[in-house]
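Run Sugar (Pentulose or hexulose) kinase through structure prediction, thanks.
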Amino acid sequence: MVERQDEGAARLADHREAIEQGRTALGIELGSTRIKACLVGPDNAPLASGSHDWENQLVDDVWTYSLEAVWSGLRGAVAALLADVEEQYGVRPATFGALGVSAMMHGYLAFDADDELLVPFRTWRNTSTERAATELTGLFGHNVPLRWSVAHLYQAILDEEAHVPQVRHVTTLAGYVHWRLTGQQVLGVGDASGMFPIDAATREYDPRMLAQFDEAAAGRGFGRGIADLLPGVLPAGADAGALTEEGAALLDPSGTLRPGIPFCPPEGDAGTGMVATNSVAPRTGNVSAGTSIFAMVVLEKPLERVHEELDVVTTPAGDLVAMVHCNNGASELGVWAEVFGQFAAALGQPAEPGAVFEAFLRSALDGDADGGGLLAYNYLSGEPITGLEAGRPLFTRTPDSRLTLANFARTQVYSAFGTLSLGMRVLAQEQVELDAMFAHGGMFKTAGVAQRLLAAALGAPVAVGRTAGEGGAWGIAVLAAYRASARGAELPGQSLGEYLGAEVFADAALDVVEPDAADVAGFAAFLERYSAGLAVERAAVAALRNRDTTQEIH
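Sure, done. The structure for Sugar (Pentulose or hexulose) kinase is below.
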């Protein structure tokens, strides 16, 4: 006992010393429902964290977050992290070895010559760009999804929006925050690949497609070259600037943080998910489950055909990735857990939200393999893979179905994986092979539940590591540490894959779940029902309109 106490005291002293000396890395990720900050030590293990909850709003039929909410949320998350460090280690950090910012990919943040935002931030969740995405996909011979920044810009050009002549630069949420903190208008290549297609050889924006866009846009009266509007592109490990005095004040009004902290390139949540699961090498992949859910598979070679269901993006190092992105993920699960928590409180048995969610999720393991004949859709917004321009959360069943808590919970989990499974079938048609599929996100904190049912949905083994619940904030902290490992050089001496293998995951413990035959058959039956029932979901979208145009969506 005394020996363990001595080891704990020594470890605490080591951590305190690393914090005081700035031998740490801070990652901040702006997710759909939470802004999280994660501090890692010299071994890349999490030391402390802080978070701030926020929600997107539907304003005038546009999914958005205000810039005020961005900065109040960032300050809240950083303040919570600094307080956590002080409580655990008795020291308040004034600097870090490196810092990185990541956020939801895609979307549209357009600024004028005075750096003023021209229209409210249009997030990845907006699906109003179908005409632009279709035209650009045909023009480029490269799939341009509705979410991509270039689709938003081109749609604004097609619609002759009043702000278009004033556009001087366009960026993503991570790029915007990074720019305000460092003064540098750059993006990591992974996040940039969700703005405009990347050339696999140069790992820069594709020059042929840039020229094609300019010609098409000029024909619509838009005279600026798009290359001048987009952020610069940087690979993982590159120098992306340092925290300015203005940036330090924005991030920490208390004045604790000092300027000069070096930054890694800002990345999207897809890229940080790849890092957090050590899936940046060819034949590896990961599933990230949050408000949206998506699978990333690192390719050995380009896809043979263009598929509307598949985005082609890159890893933070610039390697090609096939992405199956579903707009709707685990949000509906969370809403139902809230309802059950309210019911428990009404019975005089209140419980913590996390405990309620875990109990609800675990009950899914006791359900029938096919969910008892129940059917649910988790569509809070449109879903391009299934052709839905808008969404309506929906639960229905036939009279002969078995409505139990366990079947209801399993059906809700299956619903979260339904659209993803349809997209992965398209990837299988390209004969893309996988050696490993990793999973991360809040759903996977509850051991063995979502992981087992995801294995059934994919028909493949699913691995979850000890950092599965840390998600992208830890991933961007690792990318910041990777930049710090360069020690002032242009790039680190190791590739990103080599660094992750040697410095981060060398001794990582993984829990691997093989697909259960009964679950696989049960999910297949559910997916058949799910595909047939999409007509019901379409009818719900047509029949049920939102009550108003300004509302928070959880």
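The CA atoms of residues 138 and 144 lie 9 Å apart.
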